[in-house]
Specification:
With about 230 residues, the chain is mostly beta strands. It is about 5% helix and about 45% strand. This is Fructose 1,6-bisphosphatase.
């Protein structure tokens, strides 16, 4: 997994959800959490007119197109989404080739990075769904991208570790990477889209405990779409 992580920038430490694993008993039912309301991500939504200022979308990307949000699964148990693009996101136009890649890893911060792997809580991922929803000047919305995969079937790691809960994603021996995911042509009045990452996660309540808690966690990533100058 280290060959994957060398491509990723340092964590910004932005925690967006706090989900607690407190039970030592397996939970059969999945507990879902709603993604961030995309309407709250728009900083200006005035109806367009011939003299109106350009609409602005509250994108979380840097100019070079990378972001590293985290989700707290339990005390000192952190899921990190590293996402980057193959071009500057200021070059994400409605008619351009738009591609993104991502890595999902979990870090047990209760243990030192060099601690034996057996002392870390093992977390597994059995499904990931990524849905892109557009924001437009007309108010109409489309879904130009939907990804729904089993991480075990999709991983390119020939030495990937698995368990009853899916693909191991606890660092440094686990993780999931998917590269060059394309977003197609968007309607001309599109000025933003929101990528919702929904991950089915099963994590140990205690290291080596065997019993896991399963939940669905969401991470919303707003991305601005620009007009060609």
């Amino acid at each position: 997994m280290s060959r994957w992580l060398t491509r990723i920038a340092a964590v910004t430490g932005v925690a967006v959800l706090s989900l607690t694993l407190t039970s030592c008993t397996s939970v059969a039912a999945l507990v879902g959490f709603a993604p961030i309301d995309q309407a709250s991500q728009v900083s200006a939504t005035a109806a367009p007119t011939a003299t109106a200022a350009p609409l602005v979308f509250d994108s979380v990307f840097t100019d070079m197109g990378s972001i590293h949000p985290t989700i707290q699964l339990a005390p000192q148990l952190e899921l990190q989404l590293d996402m980057w693009t193959e071009q500057k996101t200021h070059e994400w136009y409605t008619d351009s080739d738009k591609r993104f890649s991502f890595v999902i890893s979990v870090f047990d911060r209760a243990q030192a990075p060099e601690a034996p792997f057996g002392t870390k809580r093992h977390v597994y991922m059995s499904n990931i769904t990524v849905t892109a929803t557009t924001t437009t000047a007309s108010g109409a919305s489309t879904t130009p991208f939907v990804l729904n995969v089993n991480p075990i079937a999709a991983t390119l790691d020939p030495e990937a570790l698995t368990g009853p809960g899916g693909l191991l994603v606890t660092s440094p021996k686990g993780g999931f990477q998917l590269e060059s995911n394309p977003i197609g042509i968007l309607t001309p009045d599109t000025y933003g889209l929101t990528l919702d990452f929904a991950m089915t996660i099963a994590g140990e309540a205690t290291a080596g405990g065997g019993a896991t808690v399963t939940q669905i966690v969401h991470q919303a990533i707003p991305v601005a779409i620009f007009k060609r100058m």
